[in-house]
């Protein structure tokens, strides 16, 4: 089992970025947490973070037939990017949508998600632990 964890804009600034919303853990903490969990479960994991929409589209398309599942937090692109949604649909790789904050309790413009419809599940408001929840959801489906 091989999993790809994709994070979008400003997730590399975790720990510094609005800690009242996103918490004090860093992007490295996030990767270590998921890596440790994957090691315990015998899952291979790769990480990708980008602030550029096209790069996220490329990594999704390039993972065709190379990855069994995707955990993705497209960050702000969640609410704007049909291109990322189309790429996920193109490769037909099961994915879980993750948000560190509880977007359902935030601004109106965060209520749209172009990737939710075809996601295996959406996890939100659990901080960086949400990525582990996403991993467990994907593993249960196997
Ligand atoms: C986010 C929520 C988005 O609305 C926001 O643009 C982000 C992060 C989250 O993880 O809570 O950048 O995806």
Explain briefly what this protein structure is:
With 142 residues, the protein is an alpha/beta fold. 35% of the residues lie in helices and 18% in strands. The model has no long low-confidence stretch (mean pLDDT 97).
Structure in words:
It is a single chain. The chain is an alpha/beta fold and 142 residues long. It has helices at 19-22, 27-41, 53-62, 82-91, 130-140, and strands at 2-7, 44-49, 69-73, 95-99, 121-124. A five-stranded parallel beta sheet has the order 2-1-3-4-5, with helices on one face. It is globular. 1,3,4-trihydroxy-5-OXO-cyclohexanecarboxylic acid binds at residues 10, 73, 75-76, 78, 99-101, 103, 110.
Helix content: 25-40%
Radius of gyration: 14 Å
Q: Calculate the mean pLDDT score and round it.
A: 97
The SS-based structural class is alpha/beta
Note the run of SSEs as H and E. Answer: EHHEHEHEEH
The number of distinct β-strands equals: 5
The largest sheet, given as strand count, sense and whether it forms a barrel, is: 5 strands, parallel
Quick tags:
142 residues; alpha/beta; five-stranded parallel beta sheet; 5 strands; 18% strand; globular; binds 1,3,4-trihydroxy-5-OXO-cyclohexanecarboxylic acid
Write the layout of secondary structure elements.
Elements: E1 2-7, H1 19-22, H2 27-41, E2 44-49, H3 53-62, E3 69-73, H4 82-91, E4 95-99, E5 121-124, H5 130-140
Helix pairs in contact: 3-4
């Amino acid at each position: 089992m091989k999993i790809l964890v994709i994070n979008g804009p400003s997730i590399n600034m975790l720990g510094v970025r609005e800690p009242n919303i996103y918490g004090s853990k860093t992007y490295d903490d996030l990767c270590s947490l998921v890596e440790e969990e994957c090691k315990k479960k015998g899952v291979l994991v790769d990480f990708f973070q980008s602030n550029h929409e096209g790069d996220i589209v490329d990594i999704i398309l390039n993972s065709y037939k190379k990855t069994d599942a995707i955990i993705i937090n497209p960050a702000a692109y969640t609410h704007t990017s049909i291109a990322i949604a189309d790429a996920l649909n193109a490769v037909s790789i099961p994915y879980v949508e993750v948000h560190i904050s509880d977007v359902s309790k935030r601004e109106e413009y965060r209520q749209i998600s172009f990737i939710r419809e075809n996601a295996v599940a959406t996890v939100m408001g659990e901080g960086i632990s949400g990525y582990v929840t996403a991993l467990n959801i994907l593993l249960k489906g196997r």
